[in-house]
Design a protein that fits this description.
The protein is an alpha/beta fold and 598 residues long. Helices cover 64% and strands 6% of the residues.
Amino acid sequence: MPNVSDKAIDDDIKESFPPVGQWVAKSCRSICTRKHLLKRLPILHWLPSYNLKFLAEDIVAGISVGLTVIPQGIAYAVVANLDPQYGLYSAFMGCFVYCIFGSCKDVTIGPTAIMSLMVQVHVANSGIDFAILSAFLTGCVILVLGVLNLGFLVQFISLPVTAGFTSAAAITIASGQVKSLFGLPGKSNEFLEAWMNVFENLHEIRLWDTVLGATTIVVLLVLMQMKNMSGESCWASVGKYVALARNAIVVILATLLAYLLSEAGYSEPFLLTGNVTAGLPPLQPPPFTTILDGRTYSFSEMIGEMGSSLITLPLIGILESIAIAKAFSKGKPIDATQEMIALGLSNIAGSFVSSMPVTGSFTRSAVNNNSGVRTPFGGIATGILVLFALGLLTKTFYYIPKATLAGVIIAAMFFMVEIHTAVEIWRTKRIDIIPMVATLIACLLLGLEIGILFGVGTNVCFILYQTSRPMLLPQQCTIDGKTILVAQPDQRIVFSSAEYLKHHILKHSNKAGAQIVILDGSHIASIDTTAAKVLVCMTKDLQLQNRTILYWKCNRATRFTLLRMDKTLFQPLFTAADNLEQMFKETGSSKTNKEQNK
């Protein structure tokens, strides 16, 4: 290092805290600007330039999504162990809120299979009030994470973990619907319990429910293929819209069949959905206290009952919604913060109309996109159609066969099992299949909440192991009869890898009989306090062995951290030489000067 005074060096290497006050002031000033307002209210971007030509396309797309979400909402309420109307209560408020705050025209917010499955545990144990409160709390957590720009947390859920979680959720949901497909008694929705219930009640299988459920699945899969009809004829267009509205078509036909059989005097050959509460949901705050089995639960006790779902529900909601927005963005940048704000407000607003937690739906977003939606205004049409169904069609819902709803859910789950992703992972990097399989098995056996945490933990263990085992590239050479060992770590040095690095440098230096050890810091972006302390010990150990150690190509951050740890020890050990020959000459001349001074 250049010869400068100790005070100048101390001032130079001194570490200062970031100017938090200035950052806060700058952020506050930026919030109070027209640019920020337009950014946080995307409706102000597209509404002033809205073309009436878009209206017809948005309404058609909105109705197509509505025809999909009505049967799905009823079915997902069943998955969540809720009465059917709660699925519809959850299907309209997100459409209205996202129209104002959402940044992607294709995304539709509403009930989804995975969120319903994660809620059903609380509903089964604690009742509907917990599901509604979980929507409010999920919204609050997502909104806070969005405002604080903490959406990066979902990046800790890797592709293998996501694929394992999604596949396990699909298998669990489908397993929970097998009983309804066969007309069996029981309410279990967990994977193992669902199949135990099926095998225990095989003797009670209802023939016509089974036939209707199986027919529903087959018809849905056939109708889905109609979207692939080629050509420009009117039949191709008809096939496209039939495929988009396939869920509504099979539910309407099955409901009509059940009604006609009932009117003809047949004693209900199918198990029916039954009474659905008519009318709009009450507009009221979410329940912050509840009474269950004669016991009054306070707000804090309700939160305690929810446990880890206060973390997993928001994270899964964010993951699904942002993934869908990216999938339909067509290369345009996605404002993850805005998407989180929109999703958080959708859940908070939904909790005031008795909604369960909601997020973006890939199926309905695909319907929206394929229907030619032009702006988020399509969500208004969807929401109005759901309200219309709640107000006028609830008596019709009585005749919806449970086997048909089960068929709708199971058919959708076929495409949620990530087989293609597993093949891709196996082809790309086979070790990544371990966290996927671990997540899949844990979710099936331990439940989704514990399963995804287990999967993330498994992935983090892989990352920690890799960071604790930096690859060391030792190179040995001889200059003027002296053996030189150059050790180059391939990554930054942190507390978990410092001892490993020390051990291997000492090992290689002893093995090579090196007189000079050079630590090449080309790839060391930074070090922490623990690593600096270990490097102090390593430097002293090498000096006790009468070996010279030099620190070469270390960046400013690394040098200053070591100097703050022990300036006297490290200051003469840094070298900025361009090559080994120059470094060797500098080292030799430095030693000669020291001997002359003595």
